[in-house]
Structure formats: structure tokens, C-alpha cells
Amino acid sequence: VAPEVTQTIIRTLLAPLLTGEDALAPDTAWQRMYDAMRVRGHHGGFYLDAVAGVDIALWDLCGKAAGLPVYRMLGGPHRSLLPCYISGVAGATPDQRMEFIAGYVAEGVRAFKFFLDAGERETLDWIDRLRDRFGSAIAIYIDALWRLELKRAVRLARQLEAREVGWLEAPLAPESVDGHAALARAAEIPIALGECYRTRFELLPFLRRGALDIAQPDLGRTGISEGRKIALLAETFAVPVAP
Q1: Alpha-carbon distance 169 to 194, whole Å?
Q2: What's the CA gap between 94 and 133, in Å, rounded?
Q3: What is the C-alpha to C-alpha distance for residues 118 and 185, in angstroms, rounded to an integer?
Q4: Residue 118's pLDDT is what?
Q5: What ranges in 149-218 are assigned the alpha helix state H?
Q6: Which residues are bridge partners to 241 per DSSP?
Q7: What SS3 state is found at 77?
Q8: Longest dimension (CA), the chain
Q9: Distance between CA atoms of 183 and 77, rounded to whole angstroms?
């Protein structure tokens, strides 16, 4: 959305801060950029998106200078295979979407995420159709797109549990620490959060309150430096991370 805004931030605010500094010190640069504007209230949104873009570019420079992939510079690899899922499916009708999924299943994909872009009843009926066709051969995740309030979310979570859904993502307003904490206590299904939070400082209250079971940082908004710190913070609270 509005990429010219982040471009302007980089050119007018961040470039003057970093020109002439050490290009191979991305963590130092992140802190310098973050510190420069947080007193003015810019500790999220477009400003942090711009910081993330610069941070990723600096890690790319470090990798090129060292002749190494970035995961080596971060201390990895920790595993040779990563699980993945298809996020959203194509098709104008349910039958078309089902065939889209069947094509991926035939290729070996075993996990899919769907959005609560209709009502809860329609979503539950769709999951039932998937279970009728594929049984437990596929994992299913639901992203509620912050559309629910607490009681509706609790009801939906319990119905998703019965259908063996892997997680309920972004169920409540993203500012609601108390609401997510209450939902996590009431629901057995894992609660997943994180794509709208750009720093560990924003995510820390949710971790302290036990308000999420899976952390989902968006590395395009956190950058690599802060994304790594969010992952380490989540690990401290025994919360797994699914970027």
C-alpha cells in the first residue's frame, strides 16, 4: 500500500542517518533508525516498514560481502526441511477451489490456510467439505482477519477444535491483549498472532499474558534484525514461530 510513502521515508529520513556508516552492521543501523523517530511517535506503520526494507538490504550486503547466505550468518541451519502451507486458494466457486486444492494435494502439499471472508457457518461448512474429501490427510488453518469479538471467537474456536483445525489466526482486534488472553484460556485450538506487529516491544505484552500460542512475524515488516529478536523472545516464552 502506497510504496511511495516508504520510499520517501527512506530518502528523507533514513538515508541521511546511514550514509557514511558501516554497511556491514545491520543491527546497529536498525537501532539507529528506530531510535531516531520513536520519540516522535514513529515506532510502527510506514516508518518501521521502511526500516525493515533497509535492514533486509543491509543483510543482503553482508551476505554478498561474506559470500554466505544470510541463514549462515544468523547461526543456522537448524533444519534441512521447512513445513509450508498454501495461503488462500483460487477459484470463483467452491468446486473450483476444491479442484485447486486437489491439484496441490496431488503434488504433495499437505497444508492450507483459509480466510474467514464469509460467515462462520459458511467457513465451517467449507471445512466439513474438505474433511469429507481429504479426511485428515491435510492440515487446515483459519485466518479470521481480526473480524471477531470475544464471544464469537470462543464459539468459533470450539467448533474449529472439533474439526481438527491447526490454528485460529488473528481472531480479535490486534490491540486487544486482554481479549486474546481470555480467548487463549477458553480455547484449546492454538491462537496465532503477529503479522501486524513490527517489534518485540509490541509483541511482549501478548507473550507475558499468554495471549498467543504461535507467533507470526512478517519479516517484510520487521526486517531480519528485529525478526530474529522476536523469534528469540518467543522462544523464551516457549512459543513457536511461523513467519
Answers
A1: 9
A2: 13
A3: 26
A4: 83
A5: 150-162, 177-186, 200-208
A6: 215
A7: coil
A8: 61
A9: 35
Helical axes 150-162 vs 177-186, angle rounded to 10° = 30
Q: What is the length of the chain? A: 243
**What's the predicted TM-score (pTM) here?**
0.94
Assigned C-alpha cell, 33: 533508525
C-alpha grid cell for residue 156? 468459533
**Cβ atoms 163, 144 nearer than 8 A:** no
Per residue in 41-79, pLDDT tens?
A: 999 999 999 999 999 999 999 999 999 999 999 999 988
**Structural contact between residues 114 and 156, judged by C-beta atoms closer than 8 angstroms:** no
Query: How do the residues of the chain divide into helix, strand and coil, expressed in percent and rounded to 5?
Result: 55, 10, 35
Residue 137, all three cell numbers: 490427510
SS3 state of residue 155: helix
Three cell numbers at 168?
A: 485460529
**141 forms bridges with which residues in the sheet?**
113
Distances from the Cα of 215 to the Cα of 167, 188, 191, 219, 241, angstroms: 11, 16, 9, 12, 5
d(CA 116, CA 146): 9
Q: Return the pLDDT at 1.
A: 83
Name residue 140's beta-bridge partners.
112
Residue type for position 118: A
